[in-house]
Amino acid sequence: MIVEKRRFVIPELLLYSGHGLQNVHMGYETYGELNDRGDNAVLIAHYFTGTSHAAGRYRESDPEPGYWDALIGPGKAIDTRKYFVVSCDTLCNLNTGNPDVITTGPTSVNPATGRPWGGSFPVVTIGDFVEAQKQLAEFLGIERFHAVAGPSMGAIQALEWAARYPHKVDRVIAAISCGLATEPFLIALLNAWCSPILLDPNFRQGDYHDGPLPAAGLTEALKLVTLTALHDGWAKRLFGRRPADKSKALPSDSGQLFAIESALQQTATARAAIADANSFLRLAKAVQLFSIEDRKHDLRSKFLFLPAESDLLMFPRYAESGAAELSSLGLSVETHFLKGDGGHLDGLNAIGQASEAVRAFMDA
Amino acid sequence: MIVEKRRFVIPELLLYSGHGLQNVHMGYETYGELNDRGDNAVLIAHYFTGTSHAAGRYRESDPEPGYWDALIGPGKAIDTRKYFVVSCDTLCNLNTGNPDVITTGPTSVNPATGRPWGGSFPVVTIGDFVEAQKQLAEFLGIERFHAVAGPSMGAIQALEWAARYPHKVDRVIAAISCGLATEPFLIALLNAWCSPILLDPNFRQGDYHDGPLPAAGLTEALKLVTLTALHDGWAKRLFGRRPADKSKALPSDSGQLFAIESALQQTATARAAIADANSFLRLAKAVQLFSIEDRKHDLRSKFLFLPAESDLLMFPRYAESGAAELSSLGLSVETHFLKGDGGHLDGLNAIGQASEAVRAFMDA
User: Fold this and answer.
1) Which tens digits make up the pLDDT trace of B77-94?
2) Closest by alpha carbon to B305, among B347, B345, B269, B336?
3) CB of A253 less than 8 A from some CB of B
């Protein structure tokens, strides 16, 4: 499946913070066709470090398809022969250096100054992401969503959709998700993710666009993201206690690293090279602020939670308690556990095992 | 129980790295009396951020007793009417600004230069800690240990004792412990703990003793230690989603924090004020390097593992796999789980629930 990245522009988006954001660019891609009634649409929302690229390939030569390709495509659980699937980049998407990403955020030019917003970009919320997506949906002629789905930060966007527009969202598929609000332990962990950026002397309150970038801090932040999204089973299987430099029997001086340290460093360095530190901070704050607790009585959708058993970031009990709360409100809720020892990332890498559960939920 | 901190000096300690360390000062305290045969001794080794202060109070006015006071004292599981309990500060103890701590480490003066070692202090290993403790034991007239015990980094010191001196250690009590080696996931997490220190511009390769201290980096490192040693049950119970500033309904600007963020910041700032960044790095490396895998066939002690069910730092399965491995070698191994939702710190804060298991193990 070859897919095309498109651009949607919102002349002005009123943010939760009260700021009116002009000229908001949002990348998106679609798979399948919208029916005449405009009611066979599925919205896919992406995770913290993700992009709109949920399925297919942009180019035949792309080494990997989109992150939920196991679930989305012709004949797959989210069947693009039946559904019109839309997936878009969030505001403040992290990967500003990825040429396939189209987003408005701290690296965008502030029309008032003619310079990048940097640290002065307003706080954004998950609700703001939803409002931007809603404008795209209207532009595309979508009347209602058969389902809104996503993993992790994508799942909480789906929950936010269900709280804001209960009559436009028939189904929510929340993989590796919080319950009805971001739990305090995750709030604290997100704070820890951000700390290395704030410590980097190049960060300068986010006003780094004219100078050296806070690459070291962003690298450490992304290293911590990767680590907390994984699990010790993964670490053991791939690395064990091997030293990074196999010519030495034991890492016995302070400079020598274990293989797992070195691999995380390399991965994070590569990710940081195309990411933006201010965007990272805005996304973290958006996730911290997520809560639909006060609007839970508005909910009308059907819900499918897909927690990963070994998740150390959004523990399975977060989804379980959310599911229990929704059930107690009389809503239709199903929970299907992803097995594995890959941690939070099993919601991406091992999502295929939920295919039958998702297919049944989509058809019910 | 009022206890007295004492000082032991080792003229020269040969480290694993090959360095000969002169004039090593080690703080220690004892509870109970050594018998004539010198075989009723119990060694208590401390955790990463701990000190020798395992039980009792130094002064009547001390608000809290030592960290394992629930377990150690007259009539308690480790009964000081029967046992001579010794507890000592490790090399490179973290809390160099605590007046009750006596340690040799990066803040000590390098006799070759007359200046603090700083970043040039050699790498130390858990084995080095054990060798220093062994010299103290000999000085005190201890022939053998009825038990060597400790939580977390203390547990791995106990395991190292059993591997180095199998005929001098009758019992090992390993609370919130690794198995026979530090697992790769924990190696990576220790790396993440250290990152904020290395990012602090005041760190300057550890040569900060003449200038401003890397307090911000050390604070973030200690924040991450605290967070990873806890658990979401704790976070929910104590903080929920309350904002730090209750006068605002929602933390909606990037400066405002949730209560849990603010509390972790305050705690970490206070801890950092009496801690040393280079010592932190040396301790982290020592824990990363721990392994007795290659010496497991030498082991002769009885083992009691006390994993905490909600531990997110040294997962219960680490101790379980260690216990299984020791059992398969024909050794006597027991495992008793600490219940609770306090994470790794249940090995300190909730250790009292292991009293009967420890008492029975001590008498067996």
Assistant:
1) 999 999 999 999 999 999
2) B336
3) yes
